[in-house]
């Protein structure tokens, strides 16, 4: 049987796009006939605390859905303190080195990046082996950190750039989730073999309810991480609530600020529903008219995986993040575009939308686009051939 290992910093039962993306890949590869092993930290994201069933362990191994999962020790933290975040990454890197020394790995290894330092650890310690190293790049670091304001162009930034370039050099194959990512990589390693590997979801598409008719205010929903990059707290402050309700699902660093803002502004139509499972979320999303996909700042290389998930659900989108995501929304007629960072334009776009424009035919058309152009199984077959 073909064997493959996936090295990742995120995996279920952790929530979010990163863990879902890798879980889909792992399950998909098993269906392609691979014996899949996943190496990941003890689950701790996004709370920054190791989940209760795994507390006090140095390592936990299980077999779930025919996938062998090794969960390794990590100093868990979601602190904004850069030193603590660095210690967390280094602790997982230490666990990986320990694992590499005492365990035999399959010939083919997929390494998730970011985190940049974790990917570097894998590349450094496996570079002289006979393994085929496949780097799966979902975001461009340190560029993304610079655009988010996390980094400044100083010595530390240039060190991270050298690490990034080293990772690309040592990879035998690179997967990138956007054309911008692949363009950046080939500008550094011109002859490197690359594949566009989008974050397509893999679930049974729901039937569009043709009898459902929305009334009253337009119900807009955001579901996902409540972190700095998404800017949901600022969005709550800037939205015009005259004709809309704004519903929020998820957890993250801005959660307490969002809850406090809602508590102080009960006159506004903002509703926070907490974190729910992906299955529960898919059921809940059927009740909303529109979803919004925001980024506080345009991030080069970023194409939010929510685009592909919502399209499969048939949910029209307002995209508010700039970059390649805009191109996808426009090309496949998935919804509306608001100029990145321009909240006045965002409100004008929202106020221009009427409930009559969000009918079952529109939702069906969006879902058809997803089923035709965002096919996970076809993409996986392409990846399997390249492996």
Write out key terms for the chains shown.
single chain, 387 residues, alpha/beta, Rossmann fold, 2 domains, 8-stranded mixed beta sheet, 6-stranded parallel beta sheet, 14 helices, 40% helix, transmembrane, Glyco_trans_1
- Strand arrangement across the biggest beta sheet: 3-4-2-1-5-6-7-8
What is the CATH H-level superfamily of the largest domain? Glycogen Phosphorylase B
In total, the number of strands is 14
- Gross morphology is globular
CATH topology of the largest domain: Rossmann fold
For the record, the count of structural domains works out to 2
State the separation between the terminal residues, measured CA to CA: 14 Å
As a whole number of angstroms, the C-alpha radius of gyration is 21 Å
Structural class given helices, strands, pairing?
alpha/beta
The string of secondary-structure elements, in order, is EHEEEHEHEHHEHEEHEHEHEHEHEHHH
Instruction: State the CATH architecture of the largest domain.
Output: 3-Layer(aba) Sandwich
pLDDT < 50 runs, ≥5 residues: none
The number of distinct helices, counting runs of at least 4 residues, comes to: 14
Main pleated sheet: 8 strands, mixed
Under CATH at level 1, the class of the largest domain stands as: Alpha Beta
Beta fraction:
15-25%
Helix content: 25-40%
